[in-house]
Design goal:
Blueprint lengths: L2 E5 L7 H9 L9 E5 L12 H19 L5 E4 L4 H6 L7 H8 L6 E5 L4 E4 L9 H4 L2 H17 L6 E5 L14 H16 L3 E6 L1 H9 L5 E4 L2 H12 L4 E5 L5 E4 L16 H13 L1
Parallel strand pairs: 1-2, 1-3, 3-10, 5-8, 6-7, 6-8
Antiparallel strand pairs: 4-5, 4-9, 9-10
Helix pairs in contact: 1-10, 6-7
Length: 284
């Protein structure tokens, strides 16, 4: 039976609650066994502090150790506060980058998937002003290839993937920006030359997610975080899962944060956590 690790996240948030509700839901696969990691006594609901952040980090470190030793087959991570972690010396923008660094992986990516949309991100936790400088053909080709591999692993033999433009109207032939001409078009050509999937684009950003949601594409590659996650969370907030692509062992996470405002009030919806655990079992 695959062993799936589940970290509680920041114990001052809703992580412990959604994990407990998921475990009691009767909706988890029976072919996996689950081990919970984290000290839930280290946090007061709704009142995060250095102690609760340290507990969240300790659970992540424990998970990495178990995965590296071959004692676990996948990890599901509960929500953490990036600000609180960084206040105790955590040097990473998020858990995605933490796991990639822990495993020495440079070819990695962030993808979110739900019932209606699957979105890979060309850039992740970056200031919007920095995105045009960060985009290049190699970066887009990498996330496109990783996304195609994820879709094939889930049984889609010939994925159809749209690559969004960066600018309004996908640049309008250079009228609103040249990133589509200089970077995105060559990246789409490069991806199609690899033969891993059928890629199209640069697609008009304000229309492509509608097209994907109605089934025209199996995934969309977004150029930056909010371009892809605003439509995904609008349509799939209660069932979307965050996946770190490129790791030697699967890592998934619910698509929501710590929700300190409702922590300890028995109001948290476990649907995304259930979906994250189910996907971890599938990938494992």
């Amino acid at each position: 039976m695959p062993r799936i690790l589940i970290t509680l996240g920041d114990p001052a948030g809703i992580g412990p609650e959604v994990v407990d509700k998921a475990m009691a839901s009767g909706k988890l696969p029976t072919h996996c066994r689950f081990d919970l990691l984290g000290d839930r006594s280290a946090g007061i609901p709704g009142k995060p502090d250095r102690r609760s952040a340290a507990a969240a980090l300790a659970a992540l470190e424990h998970a990495v150790t178990q995965l590296k030793l071959g004692r676990a087959d996948a990890v599901v991570t509960g929500p953490v506060s990036k600000d609180n972690l960084q206040a105790i010396g955590f040097p990473f923008p998020g858990q995605t980058e933490y796991f990639a660094t822990a495993f020495g992986v440079r070819d990695f990516g962030m993808l979110l998937t739900g019932r209606n949309l699957t979105v890979g991100l060309a850039t992740i936790h970056e200031a919007l002003a920095n995105v045009p400088e960060l985009l290049n053909i190699e970066r887009i080709t990498r996330i496109g290839t990783l996304t195609a591999g994820f879709l094939k692993r889930r049984g889609i033999a010939s994925p159809r993937i749209a690559v969004a433009g960066l600018n309004p109207h996908a640049g309008e032939n250079g009228a609103f920006g040249e990133e589509e001409i200089r970077i995105i078009q060559p990246a789409v050509k490069s991806l199609n030359n690899l033969g891993v999937a059928a890629f199209s684009g640069p697609a008009v950003p304000d229309a492509v997610f509608r097209d994907a949601a109605r089934g025209d594409f199996d995934a969309v590659i977004a150029m930056y975080h909010d371009q892809g996650l605003i439509p995904l969370k609008l349509l799939d907030f209660d069932n979307a899962v965050n996946v770190t692509l490129g790791l030697p062992k699967p890592r998934t996470s619910p698509d929501h944060g710590t929700a300190y405002g409702i922590a300890g009030r028995n109001l948290a919806d476990p649907s995304s956590m259930i979906a994250a655990i189910r996907l971890a079992c599938e990938l494992a």
